[in-house]
Amino acid sequence: MRLLNQTAGRLSRRRRGPLAGLLVLLLGLVMTGALYTVFSPAQAQDQASDTEQVAQGRELFLASCAFCHGKNGQGISTDREGYQVGPSLVGVGAAAVDFQVGTGRMPMMRSGAQAPRKEPVFTDEETAALAAYVASLGPGPAIPSESDYSIEGLSEEEREEAIVRGGQIFLTNCTACHNFNGGGGAMPRGGYAPSLHGVDPKYIYEAMLTGPQQMPNFSNGNLDPEAKRDVIAYLTSIQENPEYGGFGLGGLGPVSEGLFAWLLGIGGLVGVAVWIASHTTRSKKTKVEA
C-alpha cells in the first residue's frame, strides 16, 4: 500500500510539472505587461504623438511643399524649362526646416537668388509637424534647445569669456559677409548676407548648423555647440551696446563713413562755395549798374 501511494505521488508531480510551469510563465508575462503599462505610459503616448505629428507634417508637405521638393522630399532638380526648382530634403534634418519655415523664407513666393525673410505662413505647431516629417526622411541636425545657445546660468566671468571667444570666431569667419557688427552686406550673384540684428538666437544657431542658401555649413564637427553659443553671446552683446559715436551709418565702417563725408561734407562745402560765388557776382553787377 505504501509503495502504491509513493508511485501515485510521483505520477501526480509529473503531471503537475508542465502545467505549473506554463501557468508561471503566463503569470510572469501578464505581470511584466502590467508593470510596463503602469510605469511607461508616457513613452507609449509620446510614440503615438510622434506618429501623429509626422502624419500631420506629411499632409502639410504634400499640400504646400511637394510641388518643388517632390512627394517624398527627394527634390526636383529642374523644371520643363531647365531651371532648378527645389533641392532634396532627405537628411537636412528638423533644424533646417525650423529655420526656413519659422523665418518665413519657405515657402518662397517666387524663385530668386535668395529667399528673403518674411512673416511665417505656418503656425508653430505646423512648423514642428513639417520638421518632424522631414526628419523622418533621413537623419539630420535636430532643432536645438535653449540650453544649447543660452549663456544663462554662467557666472559673470564665464559670460565675458564666452563673449570674447564668440567675437574672435565671428570676426574670423563671419565678418566678410555679415559685417563686424552683424549688419549684413551684399553678396555675388544677387544674394546678400542678412542682418543678424533682432534675430532669434535659435535661428542664428540653426543657420550655423545647417548653412542655408549661400552660407557655409558650420557643423558641430568644425564648430562645436559651445562655440556657436559664444558667437550668439557676442552678437547679443554688441546689439545691447549703444552707439557711443552717434549715428552708426549701418555699422559698415570706413566705407560708409567716407561716402558720407564725400557726399554730405565735401558736397555741402562745394554747394556753399557756389552759393557764395553766385551772390558775390550779383553784388558786383549791382554796384556797376549803380
UniProtKB/TrEMBL annotation:
Compartment(s) of residence: Cell membrane
GO terms for cellular component: plasma membrane
Key words of the record: Cell membrane, Electron transport, Heme, Iron, Membrane, Metal-binding, Repeat, Respiratory chain, Translocase, Transmembrane, Transmembrane helix, Transport
Binding-site list for heme c 2: C174, C177, H178
Coiled coil: none
Bilayer topology term: Multi-pass membrane protein
SUPFAM superfamilies hit by this protein: Cytochrome c
Organism: Nocardioides seonyuensis
Record EC number: 7.1.1.8
Protein name as annotated: Cytochrome bc1 complex cytochrome c subunit
Record's keyword annotation contains 4Fe-4S: no
Transmembrane regions: 259-277
Catalytic activity: a quinol + 2 Fe(III)-[cytochrome c](out) = a quinone + 2 Fe(II)-[cytochrome c](out) + 2 H(+)(out)
